[in-house]
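Feature request disguised as a bug: please show the residue count (435) next to Amidohydrolase-related domain-containing protein in the output. Example input:
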Amino acid sequence: MCRVRCRVHIQVSRQGSLSSTSVTLQLLLRFVALACAALHTQACLHGAPVTRSAGPPSRRLAVRQQPPQMNAVIVKNVRVFEPLAGVLSLPRDVAFENGRFVSVTDCNSSAPTIIDGTGRTLLPGLIESHSHPETPEHLQAFAQNGVTTVMSLACPTYAACTALTNLGPGFPDVHYAGNGVDIPGNQHEQLPGSHPLNETITEPEQAAGWVQAQVDKGASFIKMTAERASVSPTLSDAALTAVVQAATSHRLLSNCHAADFNASRQALDAGVNIVHHSPTDVAYDDVLLAKFHTPPTFNPLALRSRVSVPTLTIMRVMAATMPNQSFVPAQDSVKALHAAGIPILVGTDANPVLGPTFGPSMHEELANLVEVGFTPAEALRSATLLPARHWMLRDRGVVALGMRADLFLVNGDPTKDISVTTNIEHVWIEGVQVL
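Example output, currently without the count:
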């Protein structure tokens, strides 16, 4: 059982006066909300972490070593984005040392680095929920843009996956799916260049062996592909369901590429945890939204719904380059998911073949979410706290004592103008300054 000490400063109201009862109630509610945000990623999720199953590969079993002993950093007089409450704190001092947030009074360094945060905002590091990095340079581009954790949804080779997980301090923390699973002759096989290769199965009975192969590669979660049936062979409903069941047996989250309406239906009927992409043919209707409002097959967080990573950035590209496709259904689908209260995570599908870019596209995706009706604070929550929760990363997503010092400093207030997230002055990954 972990215990957390924290000091919380909250701005209650910027306009007018409130009764003392209203002020007290708002303060109490926000304090409870912020305390929950700090606690949930410590050790208060349901049971043991599940993004890495038990198995031979050392990557899954190893606990990431803390970075070398580092001089403390104190950012003074800075406002901090509190993702659960969706507000900025009052100006305060934030300290971190040896890769973790600490109280200012607990800093061991006799001469900490001091940074003036006046007029600036400190945010938790961004979590990219769908990408395909292949080189250290791709990760460096993420880091320079405030992205401190990266989900790789398929690798060109197993070696490419593992090569990005041991690069040392200052690189984003990478979690990967190994390869995705598809059917022979699928559309993804026709993509040019170094697009991550899917592996294939033809029958549901092959699912268990395929998932075991990804577990043997050290996969943190499982990825499958439901293709556009109008242009490509695609896995059957039974095969997709079998993959989800095999992933569940290893306590791994299942993720499905689903870029049109029917593929989304297949993914949801199969019981996946996270549906990736949004349709460019037909927007989600009430029937499909009802399917989102059902629990996944593997449900360690006792969720009442599935999760969406709509990747609007690349859906805009696909709609512009593929025949008979439109960006409007993708936008309308995200609007419907948002209105229905479905958890939405920021992912871009950044890749070296079709784009989007590694790093800058995260800020494009934040803007895309605001464009379809998110408040800036909601968009930021979808790139910090929510992915930390739904990817089972218990040590990040908020700025709180004991958590990983993954953070970035911007000039301005991104809760008023989401473009402020690009005004980056400093980035730290596990306490190591990268910008």
